[in-house]
Design a protein that fits this description.
binds zinc ion, alpha/beta, Dna Topoisomerase Vi A Subunit, Chain: A, domain 2, 9-stranded mixed beta sheet, 5-stranded mixed beta sheet, Rossmann fold, elongated, DNA Primase, Chain A
């Protein structure tokens, strides 16, 4: 909904204020109504003094006891049973605005025709009603959400989109019918595993067509939770379609979600729910999102304790008053400013998400993972292989681990980047040199097709027409919030415009680092900043270009969470240096069979530093063992052929390969 429509709705609400008050007071039988003060007893919670008051500023009731807001649109939806679009249409038409709600646009479906299901509602629905009664849900609430029953007594959740189009049906099997394996009959198609009718790629939110866009949106984890919120009198309750691990609904409904100026998140209190809440708030915007922290244990008035896991549990085990009470304690996800230490989330490396490199020695012994909410700097002399590391760890591994990537490259065209990334994704088995060429790599045709399908839509390249940091972050905000990308690569420092001049470069760089850190935390992503070294490495030791040798000001090293340096072993390094006494080598100058050394100079979160020697392969891969060399990314997971034996002395290393990099 655009701002224009929002203004019109507000004007219409003001026009209809007198009638609205009368209608609501009468329909909801508001007690102790005071016509002068425009307040009475709240119909949504038990009270003896009047807290339910008309606010002429936004033409809406508000209860100071239970925090509930209620306007004429809510009334049309909740009391008269209209859908959101019909309620708005009614309001505008009644107040003399000519308006008809937009029709659903034809959606583009490349692969197939979406099969919209037919509504099923068996008259004999007592099994469904009884079950939900046992979960604290009234028949009225079931009707409001159009919960129906099929002939087997299964609960059917009818998912409507914002245009009131029934998009899919989710069935919940009752205990009785679960035993019966021959369940059929949800039209038009039944997915045995998810019990979902209609294809699952239109992830609408449950209850979204009954939401008042002028109010606060309440997002919960399951259908039972949105039913419970509604039961407790909390309107505008929706739930996510496929549990706490899937976020495709954010991208799919982004425009619709954007219209709300306030969103409250009510996810379950288990680990997955807590993680999901962080992701949702990061993507929908910290400034407008709050969350309700459902406690795992609630102490009752009589001193007894109950364990709860979600909103429905609170309703069943305690009652709707408790839900209303919880709704008053909206929390913010802390991002900046001041907070109490006890409110900080425990740092648990196992449950905090992040990206692993796929190199066992690094993941197990040094890094563990690049946690989200951090900034990593990668440095190394030209030709050292740092671009390959960036591609391998932060793009290919990211896609393999299910994370989307956004790239700003001030140096490399998308075509070149694409070629390199695809060669890396193809891996050793699917890449060959063109006959008589030692530069041109060819990927098998079928492999290439599969690879493109695999990463389609998951890698976004920011245009390099404007290299200003603010512009880059503004554009990245789109891919991070809408698409949910978790990795942002900035390649490299020298190509990012900071508005610096001769005197303020260092302070501008410190400012940039602080902005990047805040951005990483706010959206819970990993930012990778590529930095060239300050001066050519002296090249005679295995020490890389780390820490303060990195280009830019010292603040870049000081402020980043991770610093990784890539260094290529020279021929001299490989041969080693004799001490002059027989066959002995100088200490630290022993010959090495490796091609590259990766050194961690900074690892703020786990504290472990160290270095790992690696081989380099013609397929643009660094590796330490045969499994990593012959790594098959998920696009190739059905490949059952035996992985060839590995000869570490014949790993395709070519002196020129490094040269055409960077
Ligand atoms: Zn109230």
């Amino acid at each position: 909904m655009d701002d224009n429509l929002r203004d019109i709705i507000q004007t219409a609400k003001e026009k209809l204020a007198v009638e609205s008050i009368e209608l609501i007071v009468r329909d909801l039988e508001i007690e102790d109504w005071d016509e002068d003060k425009l307040q009475g007893c709240c119909p949504f919670h038990n009270e003896k003094t009047s807290s339910f008051k008309w606010n002429s500023k936004n033409s809406s009731f508000h209860c100071f006891g239970c925090n509930k807001s209620y306007d004429i649109i809510n009334h049309y939806i909740s009391f008269q049973g209209l859908t959101s679009r019909n309620a708005i249409e009614s309001l505008l038409n009644e107040t003399g605005f000519e308006y008809s709600a937009p029709q659903k646009k034809q959606e583009k479906d490349i692969n197939r025709i979406y099969k919209y299901p037919k509504r099923v509602a068996n008259e004999n629905d007592s099994m469904v009603k009884d079950y939900w009664k046992s979960r604290g849900i009234s028949d009225e609430t079931l009707k409001f959400f159009d919960v129906t029953s099929n002939q087997y007594g299964n609960t059917l959740f009818n998912y409507y989109d914002e245009y009131d189009v029934l998009t899919f049906i989710k069935a919940r099997y009752s205990k009785e019918t679960a035993k019966n394996e021959k369940i059929i009959g949800i039209t038009p198609k039944e997915d045995k595993k998810n019990n979902i009718s209609g294809a699952g790629d239109k992830p609408v939110l449950y209850g979204m067509n009954k939401v008042n866009p002028m109010g606060t949106l309440n997002i919960s984890e399951g259908e039972g939770d949105s039913l419970s919120l509604h039961e407790a009198g909390i309107t505008n309750a929706v739930s996510v379609p496929f549990g706490s691990n899937t976020f495709s609904w954010i991208e799919y409904n982004y425009e619709w979600l954007s219209q709300f100026s306030r969103i409250v998140v009510w996810m379950d209190n288990d680990e997955a729910g807590v993680k999901a809440r962080r992701e949702i708030i990061s993507r929908l915007g910290h400034h407008k999102c709050r969350f309700i922290d459902i406690p795992k244990e609630i102490i009752l008035e009589d001193g007894n304790k109950v364990n709860v896991k979600d909103v429905n549990d609170v309703l069943v085990k305690i009652g709707k008053e408790k839900i209303l009470e919880l709704s008053k304690y909206e929390k913010e996800l802390p991002i900046e400013g001041i907070m109490s230490l006890e409110d900080a989330e425990d740092f648990n490396p196992e449950t905090w998400d992040g990206l692993r490199t796929g190199i066992k020695q690094i993941d197990d012994n040094i890094l563990y993972k690049f946690f989200f909410g951090t900034v990593a700097t990668i440095t190394g002399t030209p030709g050292s292989g740092k671009s390959t590391i960036v591609n391998q760890w932060f793009i290919n591994e990211a896609i393999n681990q299910g994370y989307g990537v956004t790239i700003f490259s001030g140096e490399m065209s998308p075509s070149i980047l694409k070629t390199w990334i695809e060669v890396g994704m193809a891996g050793r088995e699917h890449v060959n040199f063109k006959p008589n060429s030692k530069f041109i790599r060819i990927i098998d045709k079928t492999a290439k097709e599969k690879i493109i399908d695999w990463y389609r839509g998951k890698i976004h390249v920011l245009k390099d027409d404007d290299n200003n940091l603010e512009v880059i972050l503004k554009r990245a905000e789109q891919t991070v919030m809408v698409n949910g990308d978790k990795i942002l690569i900035l390649d490299n420092l020298a190509t990012i415009g900071l508005g610096e001049n001769d005197v303020n470069t260092f302070s501008k760089q410190a400012e940039m680092m602080n902005k990047l850190k805040a951005f990483a935390i706010k959206y819970n992503i990993l930012i990778v900043l590529v930095v060239h070294p300050r001066k050519p490495s002296n090249g005679n030791s295995a020490e890389g270009v780390g820490g303060y040798e990195m280009g830019g000001s010292a603040s870049i090293f000081n402020l980043c969470h991770y610093n990784v340096s890539v260094r290529r072993y020279t021929d001299a390094d490989k041969k080693g240096e004799k001490s002059g006494r027989g066959d002995e080598y100088k200490r630290g100058k022993e010959p090495t069979p490796y091609d590259t050394c990766i050194q961690f100079y900074k690892n703020r979160l786990m504290g472990t530093l160290g270095k790992v020697d690696m081989y380099f392969d013609m397929s643009y891969r660094f590796y330490t063992n045969p499994e990593e060399l012959w790594k098959r990314y998920n696009w190739d997971k059905d490949n059952k052929t035996t992985i060839p034996n590995h000869d570490p002395n014949n790993h395709g290393i070519d002196e020129d390969i490094f040269e055409d990099e960077d």
